[in-house]
Amino acid sequence: MPSYKAPLRDFDFVLNELIKVQEVLPGLPGYEEATQDIFSSYLEAAAQFCENELAPLNRQADEEGCNFDPATKSVTTPVGFKEAYKQFCELGFTALDCDPAYGGQGMPKTLSFPIIEMQCSANVAWSMYPGLSHGAYSAIHAHGTDEQKATYLPHLVDGSWTGTMCLTEPHCGTDLGLLKTKAEPNGDGSYSITGTKIFISAGEHDMADNIIHLVLARLPDAPKDVKGISLFIVPKFHADGSRNTVYCGSLEHKMGIKANATAVINLDDAKGYLIGEPNKGLACMFTMMNAARLGCGMQGLGIGEASFQGALTYARDRLQMRAMAGAKFPEKAADPIIVHPDVRRMLLTQKAYTEAGRALAALLALQLDIEEKHPDADARAEAADLVALLTPVAKAFMTDNGYTAANLGMQVFGGHGFIREWGMEQLVRDCRISQIYEGTNGIQAIDLLGRKVLMDQGQKLRKFTKQIHKFCQANEGNAQLAEFVGPLAKLLKDVGDVTMGIGMAAMKDRDEAGAAATDYLRLVGHLTYAWLWARMAEVAYTKLDSASDDFYKAKIATARFYFAKLLPEVESLKATIKGGAKPLMSLEDGQFAF
Amino acid sequence: MPSYKAPLRDFDFVLNELIKVQEVLPGLPGYEEATQDIFSSYLEAAAQFCENELAPLNRQADEEGCNFDPATKSVTTPVGFKEAYKQFCELGFTALDCDPAYGGQGMPKTLSFPIIEMQCSANVAWSMYPGLSHGAYSAIHAHGTDEQKATYLPHLVDGSWTGTMCLTEPHCGTDLGLLKTKAEPNGDGSYSITGTKIFISAGEHDMADNIIHLVLARLPDAPKDVKGISLFIVPKFHADGSRNTVYCGSLEHKMGIKANATAVINLDDAKGYLIGEPNKGLACMFTMMNAARLGCGMQGLGIGEASFQGALTYARDRLQMRAMAGAKFPEKAADPIIVHPDVRRMLLTQKAYTEAGRALAALLALQLDIEEKHPDADARAEAADLVALLTPVAKAFMTDNGYTAANLGMQVFGGHGFIREWGMEQLVRDCRISQIYEGTNGIQAIDLLGRKVLMDQGQKLRKFTKQIHKFCQANEGNAQLAEFVGPLAKLLKDVGDVTMGIGMAAMKDRDEAGAAATDYLRLVGHLTYAWLWARMAEVAYTKLDSASDDFYKAKIATARFYFAKLLPEVESLKATIKGGAKPLMSLEDGQFAF
């Protein structure tokens, strides 16, 4: 099983040298105390917890899974989960970026994001229990009444209660307009909610005293489609301690994240409380959903890092064949496989995707902090736009790349990668769901191209690409960076042209957008990563002048690898986008036969 | 769980309309009786067996796995496996393409390959028990003495005994030069063999009366490297019924193919018999290995087909959202997801890779038949060259594409794809090992580029590309095919240029070959598939003239999809190959740190 070591050096690089959060945070009221020292002490504490408490539980928990007792309808989580959660609460991590008014520590997302990454690397199934709770916290904090906030938030903040998101029903996931769960008013301000929800992560467990379900349901006479969905708070236990009629019906048997309880939740006249306006439930839920989408991206990132660490260790240890140009370690029976170019290709792919993903996560976290706290409304709006544009990119690109990384890590292990004891195949299985839930990556692509780019007339995209354009202009004469800035500027222009082309085609035929979306998202993802890698190389060159350091040399070498070996994917993406919708749509239904 | 329907129509197309095996087989002595009617009756019988016997066992067997009893060192296979195997033997399928001199039915590989594909679609873990046996049959048939053949072959042919390949040891897989298992002569012509072998597929089970292990080991004073390896027959039971000291030590816990017993095999002065020349064991083993590599390719193909069938059925059934251009089925609550371009992209990717893979399998099977039976030595040599060149391509390209297809099939199912009961995630897990075993796909790439192309001065490649060139020339004026022939001819030239470029670079630095290999294999894979899709379109156009048929229309539409949406990958492959070895090799070891 790969042991885990938190990448504290790289967090420091990304936060303090690349994104430079300390130039921004002091200007955000409430975050004045989030100094670099504070960051360091939290990150080190989290690293210790993730390395020593969470990571050692991961493998065994996958074998053990969660246990459902049909008699009591209760769920037992794997050995050690409960205790680790208790410790996590005591360390204050559930409260980390929560509102001090409810017991939170008021820390910024730029601090909480790397801590989420560490949890995902160490034990992604475990990380989802506090992760979902935080989503419930956010939704209630944003949309709850003062009374609701006072009732629920302190418990969600201290971790004594956890939360869920109850959206999906057996017949509807992507298409929530079809949902059937009903909410009848009781006349006393509460509602009676009846229906079946599936795929409810952390839906039932033994780690906390209470579970606060946030449930989408329809009021009587609500409009049929997504405009008729409302959001309700449905606690497992009421304030008086009595049991609500919301029960776990069973747990799903899954490919991965087996230690997270994925529950069927049956609501049988369960008592619930409307949160936000009637029929505006989807908008409220999107408060959670956007955070959850970024959370998925963090899963891809964290798992990619864990797989890289395992693969790198193995590649240095495993002796097999000689380097093609002659033995590198003639004293050993064979050379360690890290000498082989194809093994290095796999390791560097993991490294390049992971480090760029970490930079993107930090960038987005800072925008979230600005969006929440900046005194200037324009600055907040600007940050919100960038978050809106890049959330689907972070979700899909980081999970797709995380899955690629997890598979490559397994491949480095050869046959041993397929054996459960080594832990590498678990990373593949655990990562796979991140490409599916919280909106499949295909849905993310349509969200990006349709809603965030085309419906917005490209405004958000232009704001983003302007930043990249400025970077290219500022570094036009920089000889060291020319190898990066040239291709980046070219890609920037290409993305503009491609966007225009799709926009024109989609005006005539809306399927053109649907056909291009997945490739387009990867194109924008690569634009983002190419920009971040060029920026990371820029920082590394600056530091090299002062101190010759393997860390910075590696950044420059990895940037070169990215531009030479990963970025060229854009060549095929441009070509496939150009291929248009016709090759997808021309087969008639009967012609698909097998 | 997806039900399985054998693609008999497509087998017919590939065998009789595309590869036209009936124009060749009558000229191969021994295959005169393998008429189209004989093919049809065998294929239908195999289809019935795979659809009705094997496929229904697949899901439950994954849950159940194999059971090892440490007390008796015996293995129990999942419910139904034994009975299905018995029926398979009785139907004569173990004997299908075996030598009539030993009870075989003497059928060609062009018939056995589609039957292997069906087994892989229906139940890949099960298929490996007869699959490994057939490998042992081939090795003994090719290298055994008359006495060895008489002793072992009839039992392997009728299926009462099965076989294994015992190569890997804990410290060596790829690098067999490191293997330590020892063989001491007993003085009576037999040997005492001692060592530990791991990852032995079908290594111990309850399906047959005896297991014939083919074991690589070193004779005393044998050269240290691969030149000192010999091959031995080590039966579980001797001819007199006594138990040999070759025992299963444990079973591996794996990500997939859980119903195949992957055994640790301990040899403790086990009695064995040399097969072939001393110290030439690796060459003997490669008789099995090449077949096993093609067998892996068939696993990728078969699983891709199974996943496509599941995904297509689901995509027609699952109602979610409306078509972007407006409701296609306004009477339903929502449109079936097959209307969405991105879903069609996934289905067509599965379809295009699978059908091209099936064509490649048939092409290779015919070359194997020619290699074995053609009266003309030049024709045999020509066929052998094509098989040698395309075996690594078939192994790696078909398994990588199979894994892609399996993942796409799972993605089409959304969250349900992650749930074990639906069977789609099992296909992902079962497929994953095919990219690793029998030589990782990275090793295949080095075999192709290093051994089969560069060390051969490009002779085999030129023979292959000449066929493609002829096809392009012959269709130069064909307006219908111009959309395919143009890009194919361009790619053909590109592959020549790229090969030359790598060859020149590798002369200065051998790492250049290692760095390019994986991308190069995909490039040659796409050249092969592009050629096959152009040929399939050609056939389909001919048939369209006579009868307008959805099957042929689908072939043309799928060819278009392949050229528009999959083939453009070559654009990035050319670019990454051009990137060379330096971006992979420049990081010093310490710079990889995490």
Automatic annotation (TrEMBL), chains A, B:
* Acyl-CoA dehydrogenase/oxidase C-terminal domain boundaries: 279-446
Reported cofactor(s): FAD
Q: Which InterPro entries match?
A: Acyl-CoA_dh-like_C_dom, Acyl-CoA_Oxase/DH_mid-dom, Acyl-CoA_Oxase/DH_mid-dom_sf, AcylCo_DH-like_C, AcylCo_DH/oxidase_C, AcylCoA_DH/ox_N, AcylCoA_DH/ox_N_sf, AcylCoA_DH/oxidase_NM_dom_sf
Q: Where is the Acyl-CoA dehydrogenase/oxidase N-terminal domain?
A: 43-159
Extract the coiled-coil ranges from the record.
Answer: none
Residue limits of the Acetyl-CoA dehydrogenase-like C-terminal domain? 464-587
Q: Which UniProt keywords apply?
A: FAD, Flavoprotein, Oxidoreductase
What protein family is recorded? Belongs to the acyl-CoA dehydrogenase family.
Q: What is this protein called?
A: Acyl-CoA dehydrogenase C-terminal domain-containing protein
What is the species of this protein?
Vogesella aquatica
